[in-house]
Amino acid sequence: MSANPQWDISRALGVARFFHLVCGVRDACVTPFLTLYLRQLGLAAPWVGILMGTKHLISAFWAPFCAFLAKSYQKRRVLLIGSLLGSVGASLLMVLVPPLDRDPGYRSCDGSHSVTATVPPPGVALTVNVTSSPEPAPNHPAPSLPAERSTGVAPADGFRGGPGESGQEPFSRLPSSFVGSIQGTRTTSRVLLHPITSRVKDTPQEGAFRVVSPALPLLAGGMALASPANQSAAKGTAGALDLSLEGLRWTFILSLGSMVFWELLTSPLEQVADDSLYEYLDFVDATDRYRSLWIWRLLGMSAGVCGISALVGQLDCFLTTNGPRGVVHFYGYSLVSTLALLVSIAFPVPVFRRWEPGYKMVKALSLVGGDPRLITLALTVFLIGTATSTVQNFLFWHMKDHESSELVMGFSVALGWLGEILLHPLKTPLLRKLSRVGTVGLGLGCLAGQLLYFSFLWSWWSVLPAQILSAISHGALWWAVGASIEHLATPGTERPLSAMFRSHFYGGGASLGSFVGGFVVMRFSLAVLYRACCVVLLLWLALFLFIQPRLPQERKINYSKLLAVEASDTSDSEQGTERDWLVKAMRDEHSDWRG
């Protein structure tokens, strides 16, 4: 135990590890499942893409700005406590956002007989509830699936009648591609069905049905909802169906406002905590112990994503009977945020004020603009963010369409994080054998392979094998990027340059990928989006490997390496230039540039 508690390194690292663990659990409660919750609110892919793109954009630029202000005015602890305290209430605002369907039929909490199908054409969410109330009869047969169901595509101006049409407005005016029949006991009802992904299942209780995956289509098949025929048909029947955009407008606006307010409070937390701990350890020359703290965050995220997904199925129906599923995620997030708030009181924050130039970020930006290697690396990180955002936003939608449970979704994400932790002991040998450029190429290739694989998913469990590659497509890829940044940075710009790559370039790419990805999903399909990202990554990989050896190489001397070599070379008897420490260091530097 240190005599001065201010520099109790062991205690500071213990608190920091626990804080990272708790924050990992906290983030995993909501972040992986956020787009799935927005889908359950009734928002289509373009609106979800806009929301997530805005979230990434705020995080990319607001977090560094707040970290700069907190450091300048010595208010880091105030910001940590305020961020955690505000996020407790801000996250609960999402629970108050009204869904487009106030009484979704896919919730089988009370065994009701209602059937709900939500069919959102582009920009419109349409909900129809049908209730089947059979009269009890001792020998009445159990309900069965309809013998015939219309899943074809009608012409733009074509409408088709059917049994019970005369007394069932507005169903008689719907395009046949949206209409299916459900035959219950003594009742034949016509309900809106999704032409691709909706399925009707009978339940053990007589006369009860439920619609599975009533959402925007993600798989190609037949004519998509975004086709001109379906768009014109939807527009032609909007007046008769009283399709009010008011509900969609308010759901989207309230979701946007809640997420913006939430992100403004939450995004600065991680960077402020990292900067505080790094400066605390740097003052006593213990920054080497800072590098392993990310493992604790990944452990917390792995435990949190599996734990919250296991609780959702057990507690969701008891907490609410109306609205979408998923409120347990936000309640868990608020609860763990309260625990993190208590830990932040003891989080190590330096109380001294060390003078440092305030233009480091500007210097880092000018360094990127003047180095072709950093420019290509920045473009690589930008494309990584763009491609990764499509997986983070819509992979769970894809799995949900294949009837995957949230527990399987959480386990699939945890599988990649745990693989990254297990691969970490091989980080140094991997970078030495493949070099930094080779490791970046391997990571890009694995990411492209994952995207191509995801476009051909055939079952809910088929996503699990590909998630193992996340250890390389995320872990090893970022190790190589970090090593390249550390090598190319000038003294004093390593951390500002690394923060710029992770926030501005990666976050900007994720924002663009979210904005564009939602509209691609609506216009084409998720499979097309993933294959397009795969092709772009492979093209960039080929270009990256082609131009790297041909970029101009500036001969620089790494003085820290010179001092290390000087300290190890204590023999004065060695003669010649082959033993000279300066020549050795310059040769090592030249070999690093070639790698």
From TrEMBL:
Membrane protein topology class: Multi-pass membrane protein
Biased composition (Pro residues): 135-144
Tree of life domain: Eukaryota
Keywords recorded for this protein, A-Z: Membrane, Transmembrane, Transmembrane helix
Annotated region described as Disordered, given as residue ranges: 131-174
Cellular compartment(s): Membrane
UniProt domain Major facilitator superfamily associated: residue ranges: 28-531
Listed Pfam families: MFS_1_like
GO cellular component, one term: membrane
Transmembrane annotation, as ranges: 44-66, 78-97, 294-315, 330-353, 374-395, 407-426, 438-461, 505-522, 528-547
Family classification: Belongs to the major facilitator superfamily. MFSD6 family.
Name this protein carries in UniProt: Major facilitator superfamily domain-containing protein 6-like
Organism: Balaenoptera acutorostrata (Common minke whale)
The organism's taxonomic lineage, starting at the top: Eukaryota, Metazoa, Chordata, Craniata, Vertebrata
